[in-house]
Write a structure and sequence with these properties.
The complex is a heterodimer.
Chain A lengths: L12 E5 L3 H4 L4 H9 L3 E5 L5 H4 L3 E3 L6 H14 L5 H7 L23 E6 L2 E7 L26 H9 L4 H8 L3 H12 L8 E5 L1 H4 L4 H14 L10 E3 L6 H6 L6 E2 L3 E2 L8 H8 L15 H13 L5 H7 L11 H9 L5 E5 L3 H4 L3 H8 L4 E6 L22 E6 L8 E4 L4 E5 L12 H19 L4 H5 L11 H9 L6 E3 L2 E3 L28 E2 L2 E2 L20 E2 L27 E3 L4 E3 L67 H4 L16 E6 L15 H6 L4 E4 L1 H7 L6 E5 L4 E8 L6 E3 L2 E3 L1 E5 L37 E6 L5
Parallel strand pairs in A: 1-2, 1-6, 2-3, 6-7, 10-11, 11-12, 22-28, 23-25
Antiparallel strand pairs in A: 4-5, 8-9, 13-14, 14-19, 15-16, 17-18, 20-21, 22-29, 24-25, 24-29, 26-27
Chain B lengths: L3 E6 L8 H10 L25 E8 L5 E8 L8 H5 L6 E3 L5 E3 L9 H5 L6 E3 L4 E3 L5 H5 L5 H5 L5 E5 H15 L4 E3 L9 E5 L17 H32 L15
Parallel strand pairs in B: 1-10
Antiparallel strand pairs in B: 1-8, 2-3, 4-5, 6-7, 9-10
The chains are: A alpha/beta, B alpha+beta.
């Protein structure tokens, strides 16, 4: 999140789309309720009338997979009704930047942007890749971009935005989304009212936006709206992802995804053989005089990270050479892993605190892939569908050679450590009780594993001897989370004088501005530098004071970066440092210093000719992107249909599906990666979601009797109209099937789902939770209960997150045995 | 201890079910086997092992406007408690200072009169123990200065617990804020219930919620009329016999010669 949970209470209009916080982030609703109590509006847009909709003042339905059409219409509404915050976008975004005149919009280019190379089919392009050369700015001789401060030039980003979204008329949006026109306009009107300088609107989204082949562009569309309305950096504003797991924020911060190192540094590729190459390719440069370009500090962070891995004795270049490099352009994400696993390219697999047999899209493929492994280590609290895959439905243990090791691990209250919430707050947790039996905390398991691997390397050697043997590992024989937390913060590895002050060797670095590129500092994750210092473990602080009145609570835990609670907060003030919203200021300039939250850099306001800096300090040019050339599928969001969709053509353009999506049917496993679009066998749109009572694939919650009592079984929610069509009664046992699999479910017939009219035809939608699996309860029945048996293995071209939120199914009136 | 009220503001409930789980947690109650019968509501009703329950209700207005009502159901801890009136076992159902109506299941004889007397059908029979069970307002927590488990667990402020006057003032303030059909429910019934709702709809809209809850007149008839009358009749009968004996003396047998009495 750019903001944080408590900050929701400052909002004048909370838009909930692609999430259901009343149900899935129940405690957050406390803060949403406070916003409502203060007169704020809660607006809910969802295919289904949810618990959040039940608490909203305004609910609008939309078909799963049509969010960009909905949001595009909102952009058009904001622009043509002049509801945008003009000073904000002129000063703080690249709306004024002039774009390459060779650049083409989809409206003039068969539904795609300029530069696409791909195979043309009757559905448009497939397996496409963009040459982004035309997605560039016109440059001055001094290396800065040409700008039109009047925002009138037809090539300026602002006018291109207007032209692009002029196609998203109300009629077209209604045709695509199925939202009734009056509801659509009511949502637009409510939300666009936050364009006033002293009003703030916030967006709360989750997997309902990200798990699409246009997932990243969904977020982009909302980011553009937030910029147009001046909602970034302000209290009650921002772009706020409600993360789906208690510490997923921590896991991405610390680089658990293949494409990043801790602190969002990029994973090195094969074409960067040296550290100098890496820094050269990954350190952005700018000529914009007022841009702080904070990623320009990359060499300090990469050096400090290498020191953290390999210590002060190993030269930085050697340390860099020890890091694994990925092939340029190669993808090692989840979908790829299981595709390769199916093809027999993995011998072993650590299923660490996860349950891919239920959580992986196209779960039949995942389950069969697991059978190709030689060994698997299943680290979890309870037996699950993954560790026991070999005795699951459709499996013959006699034919499976996988050796499975179950390592029971400790639950969160049985170990000490920290988690990072969606608001970037690192919060220390103490150990409340011992883990049962032989269960151990993950840190201890990893520690033992490493020590054993090192011992084997010392005895027998191996393929990566130096990278293993030269690793520093000073966290104790039994894992000490405090030692790790301090390593993450970072140390001075030698005496260092900075700005006249001496920092002693071995002391903790107070903040990341002190990290050095010369190898004199270490830091296991630069954005967490400052979390554990000579002043102690900041994440354990529990101060309840809030002198700001906006729920900042700066003394409760510690937020990265540098305890800044609302990021991009320099955009919450005008050029002279005066808050746009005086009754809920985030920062304000008193003439000599900033008051309030930690400012996004200590520099004076922009009005200061010499020292002022632009607010979006992590962007090379210091301004936020209206025109965003860095993504795989376009500098502006464009509506494309989901890979499996209910209608024959994309009403918006001749390009049916996102042209840059990786299509697995070609080089995947064709019989398992089937796709069925506009197929009369699967005429119903299906989406997936959660319930309050279960967690992820139910690995822990199905084993908790009080929770299973509340939500005992897999169900499918459907409209009364669809039930009548099919002859289903409420509570009847039915089967939901897609091109890839089948699940049994109890039908919940409800008026909260209604049929949509899409492009002139009636389209039904159903929804299923993804919390269930065969392993518990009733393992002997080996029931097909997992939602992901139905979902497609197709992902967003930027992130490869699977499209689990919009695919096609049929629902039939008999259970499969 | 002062008289308390538990204010349940249904406008804020999100049906997260923390209350249901916290209650089982505190009371050490087990889960009961359930199936999905086409609703999120589970168990389907209060039972001997489920003292509080969120009731789900879908409402569709004629113009298509959708509502989904969530109601936390449990014992209302009435001032004029039908269960307490009907219970034949002295000391089985008692009231605490704060207003809790506590059913001591260990003393219960399983006659089920309390269930029939309750306007809300709250007390639940357990066939295994042949006793009745219901919410006891966490009187054990209250004795330690704590609030009931459901109020403690509720994340949205739907369930609040405090001094009677303060809670009623809050309830009325909230109803004013909400406007529309919002109302306070409970304070005017049964001499005032200690669990009071802020309803967002008219009472008649809610499933299983009596608009004018009252103890069955049969109970009044039985306890307030027939019982005193019977007592009166019985004691009166005894009294009449005693009076007759005092006035008329014992009945003496007549003599066989003629039965002349002595003067």
């Amino acid at each position: 999140m750019t903001n944080h949970w408590i900050d929701f209470r400052n909002s004048d209009c909370i838009l909930v789309m692609g999430s259901n916080p009343a149900c899935n982030h129940p405690v957050s609703f406390k803060w949403i309720q406070k916003a409502i109590d203060k007169g704020g509006k809660l607006v809910c847009v969802d295919p289904r009338f949810t618990q959040t909709a039940a608490k909203s003042s305004l609910y609008a339905p939309l078909r799963s997979g049509s969010d960009i059409a909905f949001l595009g219409g909102m952009i058009k509404y904001i622009l043509e009704n002049n509801l945008y915050f003009e000073d904000y976008i002129r000063q703080y975004t690249n709306a004024t930047y002039l774009v390459n005149p060779e650049f083409k919009l989809p409206g003039d280019n068969d539904g795609v942007f300029s530069g696409l190379a791909g195979t043309k089919t009757r559905e448009g392009y497939v397996s496409g890749k963009y040459d982004r050369a035309t997605w560039s700015f016109q440059m001055n001789d001094d290396g800065t971009a040409k700008k039109d401060l009047t925002l009138q030039d037809p090539n300026c980003a602002f006018q291109l935005l207007k032209k692009h979204f002029s196609r998203y008329t109300v009629e077209k949006v209604v045709e695509i989304t199925g939202t009734p026109k009056d509801k659509l306009l009511a949502v637009y009107k409510s939300y666009a009212a936050t364009g006033k300088p002293d009003k703030a609107g916030t967006i709360l989204y989750a997997m309902g936006w990200t798990q699409h082949t246009v997932g990243v562009q969904n977020i982009r569309a909302m980011s553009i709206i937030q910029l147009l309305l001046g909602n970034m950096g302000v209290a009650g504003g921002g772009v706020n992802a409600l993360r789906g797991e208690a510490n997923v924020q921590g896991s991405t911060d610390h680089g658990l995804l293949f494409h990043i190192l801790p602190g969002y540094l990029k994973t090195p590729t094969a074409s960067m053989p040296t550290l100098a190459d890496y820094n050269e390719k990954n350190t952005p440069k700018t000529k914009e005089p007022k841009s702080a370009n904070w990623w320009g500090n990359t060499p300090k962070y990469s050096a400090s990270l290498l020191r953290s891995f390999y210590g002060a004795e190993v030269p930085l270049d050697d340390a860099y050479s020890y890091l694994p490099k990925i092939d340029d352009g190669a993808n090692y994400s989840w979908l790829t892993i299981f595709d390769k696993m199916y093809k027999g390219q993995f011998s072993g697999f650590f299923a660490w605190g996860q349950n891919p047999a239920c959580s992986g899209a196209n779960a039949n493929k995942v389950r069969q892939a697991l059978a190709k492994l030689k060994w698997m280590v299943n680290v979890n609290l309870f037996p699950n569908e993954t560790g026991d895959f070999w005795k699951g439905p459709g499996m013959n243990p006699a034919e499976i050679d996988t050796e499975v090791f179950m390592l029971p691990c400790a639950a969160s209250m049985e170990k000490e450590g920290s988690i990072s919430n969606s608001g970037r707050w690192m919060q220390w947790r103490y150990k409340a009780t011992n883990a049962p039996g032989v269960a151990m905390p993950d840190g201890e398991i990893i520690s033992e594993l490493f020590h054993k691997v090192r011992e084997l390397y010392q005895k027998d050697g191996g393929p990566v001897t130096d990278p293993i043997l030269k690793l520093t590992w000073d966290y104790g024989k039994a894992f000490d989370p405090h030692a790790v937390a301090k390593e993450i913060n970072g140390y001075f590895l030698e005496d260092k004088e900075i700005d006249g002050k001496l920092y002693k060797k071995g002391s903790l670095v107070p903040a990341f501005k002190f990290l050095q590129a010369d190898g004199s500092t270490s830091s296991g994750c630069w954005v967490y530098c400052g979390s554990y210092t000579a002043d102690g473990n900041k994440s354990a602080k529990r101060g309840k004071d809030d002198p700001t009145g906006i729920g900042q609570y700066s003394n409760w835990a510690w937020a990265w970066p540098v305890n800044r609670r609302i990021i991009y907060n320099r955009a919450s003030v005008d050029l002279s440092g005066k808050p746009y919203a005086p009754d809920k200021p985030v920062i304000s300039w008193d003439g000599t210093a900033w008051k309030g939250d930690v400012p996004d850099g200590p520099w004076p306001p922009l009005a200061s000719e010499a020292d002022g800096k632009l607010p979006f300090i992590m962007k090379p040019d210091g301004v936020a992107s209206i025109f965003g050339p860095g993504l795989a599928d376009g500098p502006f969001p464009e509506h494309y249909e989901p890979l499996e969709c209910p209608i024959e053509k994309n009403p918006m353009s001749p390009q049916f599906v996102n042209p840059t999506v990786k299509r697995w049917e070609k080089d995947g496993v064709p019989e398992l990666d089937k796709r069925a679009s506009c197929d009369p066998r699967y005429p119903i749109v299906c989406t997936t979601y959660r319930v309050s009572e279960h967690w992820q694939t139910g690995v822990m919650t199905r084993w908790t009797p009080w929770l299973l009592e509340l939500q005992p079984e897999m169900f499918v929610e459907m409209s009364r109209e669809l039930a009548e069509l099919k002859g289903f009664k409420n509570g009847e046992r039915v089967m939901v099937k897609s091109a890839r699999g089948e699940v049994n479910a109890v039908a919940i017939v409800t008026p909260r789902f209604k049929p949509f009219t899409i492009a002139g035809q009636i389209v039904h939608e159903v929804g299923i939770p993804w919390h269930y699996g065969w392993r518990y309860p009733n393992p002997e029945k080996k029931e097909l209960r997992s939602a992901n048996l139905l979902t497609p293995s197709i992902g967003d071209p930027n992130t490869m997150i699977p499209e689990s939120k919009a695919f096609m199914v049929d629902v039939i009136g008999k259970e499969v045995k | 201890m002062k008289e308390k009220i538990m204010l349940v503001d249904l406008s804020k409930c999100t049906a997260c079910r923390s209350c249901q789980v916290a209650c089982k947690n505190w009371n050490g109650l087990p889960a009961v086997p359930t199936i999905n019968s086409g609703t999120y509501q589970n168990p389907p009703d209060l039972n001997a092992k489920t003292y509080t329950l969120i009731r789900f209700q879908e409402l569709e207005a004629r113009d298509g406007a959708m509502k989904w009502l969530f109601r936390n159901d449990k014992c209302f801890h009435c001032t004029d408690a039908g269960c307490m009136k009907a219970c034949p076992v002295p000391g089985c159902i008692t009231r605490t200072e704060s207003g809790a109506v506590v059913l001591d299941s260990t003393k219960c004889i399983g006659c089920k009169y309390c269930y029939h007397a309750c306007p809300f059908s709250v007390p639940q029979f357990d066939a295994a123990t042949e006793k009745m069970y219901k919410c006891h307002w966490c009187h054990d927590r209250q004795a330690e200065g704590r609030i009931p488990a459901c109020a403690k667990a509720c994340p949205t402020g739907t369930i609040q617990f405090g001094d009677k006057d303060a809670m009623l003032a809050l309830a009325n303030k909230r109803v004013k804020e909400l406007g529309g059909d919002a109302s306070v429910y409970g304070d005017k019934h049964l001499d005032g219930t200690h669990v009071v709702y802020v309803l967002t709809e008219k009472p008649e809209v809610y499933d299983n919620l009596p608009v004018h809850p009252k103890i069955s007149p049969l109970i009044f008839l039985w306890k307030d009329v027939l019982k005193p009358f019977s007592m009166l009749t019985f004691l009166g009968g005894l009294g009449a016999c005693a009076l007759y004996y005092l006035i008329k003396g014992p009945k003496r047998p007549k003599f066989e010669e003629g039965g002349e009495k002595h003067e």
